[in-house]
Amino acid sequence: MDTVVRTTQVLCLTSSLILSGVNFGASFLTLPILYTRHPSISTPIFHELYTRGAVSLVPLGLFSAACSALTAYLLPSQRQLWATAAIATASQTPWTLLVMKGTNDLLNGIAGDKVEQQKVDKQEVVDLLRSWTWMNIGRGLLALGGGLVGLRAVMEHNV
User: Fold this and answer.
1) What pLDDT score does 1 carry?
2) How many CB atoms lie within 10 A of CB 31?
3) Confidence of residue 62 (pLDDT cuts 50, 70, 90)
4) What CA–CA distance (Å, rounded) separates 70 from 105?
């Protein structure tokens, strides 16, 4: 049983911390580059980033949350900590749907329409990208929070 618990703990921690790192990397490294580009360049790149994130990061977030939930089940003495980690990490999906969806839809709509890319005000696109950047930082903080709660649980368990 100890091997199973250790394995789930490693998977929870690494997946949630990788998830937060990818979110922060997109916000701090990729999106600022797009602020200076014309919407015909920035929005298709955003769309590609969005699509790749949806395909890879959503499953990673759900996997991480499931591992934390399993660890909560396996370690009754730390159930509250691991359940908190699971909820924090899983919260990325509702955050995306409830908070970010409108901005995602606007940017992806511009990306898919060559005429709109030419007529949209560049500052409007920059404002949408900046807004998305901050919402994505919030999303990354959820995964980081899940990872840090899990790390605290591991450190407590080893004492």
Assistant:
1) 66
2) 21
3) very high
4) 34
- Tell me what pLDDT residue 23 has: 97
CB atoms within 10 A of CB 111: 22
Q: Which helix (H) or strand (E) holds 45?
A: helix 39-74
Count Cβ atoms within 10 A of the Cβ of residue 98 and give its class: 0-12 exposed, 13-18 middle, 19 or more buried.
Answer: exposed
CA atoms within 13 A on the CB side of 93: 15
- Reported pTM: 0.92
Q: Are 24 and 92 in contact (CB under 8 A)?
A: no
Residues 6 or more apart in contact with residue 122 via CB below 8 angstroms: 38, 39
Residue type, 49: L
Contact 19, 66 (CB under 8 A): no
